[in-house]
Amino acid sequence: MSVVIPMYNEEEVLPALVSRLRPVLAELGVPYEVVAVDDGSTDRTAELLAAFRLGWPQLRVIGLRRNSGHQAALTAGLDRALGAYVVSLDADLQDPPEKIPDMLALARGEGLDIVYGIRADRASDTGFKRWTAGLYYRLVRRLAGPSVPAQAGDFRLLSRAAVDALKSLPDQQRVYRLLVPWLGFPSGRVTYERAPRPAGRSKYPLGRMIRLAVDSVTGFSAAPLRIATWLGGFSFLVCLGLMVYTLSAHALDHTVAGWTSLFTGVLFIGAVQLICVGLLGEYVGRIYTAVQNRPTYFVGHDTAVSPHSEALADTADTADTADTADTPATHESSLRG
Is the pTM of this model over 0.90? Predict the structure, then answer.
């Protein structure tokens, strides 16, 4: 099993994460690795990971060269994880690692490729957080379909087949809480109560939440473009009404009285045009990003990679274009054995 954990400036919560996660994985009775992806942290996260790794050989640290974002860091971990099952987990401990054995048992017992962690209780979140989260899930379920589970974040278990399917997708700006349900693999659910953050600050402020919502909508639906079309049609009808009103006012010699309606109509049409241009800009921006085809992350180092394994990777010609080196075949065989 692989447990992928994206991290950005998590020095305060890291000791608590290790103290809770390590015994849970040790009791599973299966070979495992913990893939900690340091997303360009500026605090002591990298230093603490190096210290913990001295006494925890299953801890594997991947350091990205720059801060690439949560979903990109998660992509880096999924791309290089070696387990037959891969669990993605945030470092803030709001999603309990103690649920990992339940996820694995459900996947094995029912032959599932995906097991979602569902937040049954978000009482620890603020009222605004709960309201915006509920609004987000209602929106994406309406646009992307009911296959998207409500209140499911990035805490999930994936089989090797599901991970390989995700790796084969060409998407640049990935939102896994929509991509994973889109695969259509057999899935199950494990519910839990969302706990408060034991330390540190949230890495998803309002700005990033809005960006995630925009990426979710524009990445999985053309509905905003159709909204622009409907707005254009509605504005056309309004303009027809204003034209009739203007001609009537002119016939009755009340031209001055029409200034308010004309001014309002110009403002309305201008606002609709700006909205439509903005929506088109979002899609053009995604096309521009896809055409550039730049890697979403660059790996600076991977503690599982040794000079010997790099030579093996070069000989096999399997180097990943987005990384500086591939994962070693020797490490993979030892984990899967």
Answer: no
